[in-house]
Design brief:
The protein is an alpha/beta fold and about 350 residues long. It has two domains: about 180 residues, HUPs (Rossmann fold, 3-Layer(aba) Sandwich); about 130 residues, no CATH class. A seven-stranded antiparallel sheet has the order 11-10-8-9-7-6-12. It is elongated, with a radius of gyration of 24 Å.
Length: about 350
């Protein structure tokens, strides 16, 4: 039986690509690359991909991609897109991993859900050719949704799949994908907003701030996903939670040497001060914390400061809540929820 490995994000395009080759009797092993930068699922879970694989009736293999992706972000050979997204390099890395698994399981080719012209960086016709040539996998990568717009692959030339039963979709409109979804009875799939946080401009600013200050590592990457972020100096950042879930995440990823700041007697955020714990930085972090709480209109606010990862009671500090101009001058990114 003809066998393929397929990149499955959990989105509609990758689901349709798999379904198109399954319709031709191809046995498919789905691969989902899991990263701290995935959207819409808890790290390590790949929930959307699991649901998609179950709906398609194909086995799924989860691949931890975080460390490889971190290195690509630190040094992207083909640069970033509009945010902090090294899309071309990430896709090449995924395809190389897929190629090794293809050899391991004795598959004949690789399937992806790419569409010519759909994504501005990695799915332009030029970029697809660049990826094929750089990975040496051009003849092995079948893109069923746009196959008729591209040169025939080995699978098509050798009769493993019928090119005439594949698609020739181009561009960003999704009319044909929606038609195919109805034809195949695919009704549950995420919106096409993108599955990677690195493409988000606000998130990209946070990433680039860490890169500029040589602080980009896995722990800091986790913290990028929550809170309001402020830069006090080259060594020092402040992260302030926006709700109880984010407060828990901030505590979870705090490290020895960090300071944790909370309000006394008033519900409010958990704040992490990471870096130089000077009096000036401590007072600034406390003032920003007060501003983000119900105490923001009070003349003063009392807060408690303690070392992270300890049970110590900590010390009290009283500050005037920061004003908007002070916060704006220090803001890296307020995130989608604004100030």
């Amino acid at each position: 039986m003809t066998k393929a490995v397929a990149l499955l994000s959990g989105g509609l395009d990758s689901m349709l690509a798999i379904r198109l080759v399954r319709e031709q009797g191809v046995d498919v092993l789905a691969l989902h690359f899991v990263s701290v930068f995935n959207c819409g699922a808890k790290p390590g879970k790949g929930l959307a991909a699991r649901k998609a694989a179950d709906a398609l009736g194909v086995p799924l293999r989860l691949i931890d991609f975080t460390e490889e992706q971190l290195e690509l972000i630190r040094n992207p050979p083909h640069g970033f897109g509009s945010a902090a997204n090294p899309c071309i390099d990430c896709h090449m890395a995924m395809l190389r991993r897929a190629a090794r698994i293809m050899e391991e399981v004795g598959a004949d080719f690789i399937v992806t859900g790419e569409v010519v012209g759909q994504r501005p960086m990695s799915q332009r016709r030029f970029a697809l050719g660049l990826i094929d040539n750089a990975t040496g996998l051009g003849g092995k990568i079948l893109r069923p949704l746009c196959a008729k717009e591209l040169p025939a692959t080995e699978a098509e030339k050798n009769g493993l799949v019928d090119r005439e039963r594949l698609e020739g979709i181009t561009g960003r409109t999704r009319t044909r994908q929606m038609e195919l979804a109805r034809t195949f009875g695919i009704t549950a799939y995420p919106s096409p907003a993108g599955g990677c946080l690195l493409t988000d401009p606000e998130f990209g600013r946070r990433v680039k701030d860490l890169l500029a200050h040589n602080q980009f590592d896995l722990n800091n990457a986790h913290l990028l996903k929550v809170g309001r972020h402020y830069r006090l100096d080259d060594e020092t950042k402040v992260v302030i939670g926006r709700d109880e879930r984010e407060n828990v995440v901030i505590e979870t990823f705090s490290r020895p040497g960090d300071l944790v700041i909370i309000l006394e007697g008033v519900p409010g955020p958990t704040t992490l001060l990471r870096g130089k714990a000077s009096d000036e930085n401590l007072l600034a972090a406390a003032a920003l914390t007060a501003r983000a709480s119900k105490a923001r209109t009070a003349p003063t606010a009392k807060l408690r400061v303690r070392r992270a990862r300890t049970d110590e009671e900590g010390a009290s500090v009283t500050v005037t809540p920061a004003d908007d101009d002070f916060a704006a001058a220090l803001t890296i990114s307020a995130g989608k929820e604004g100030k």
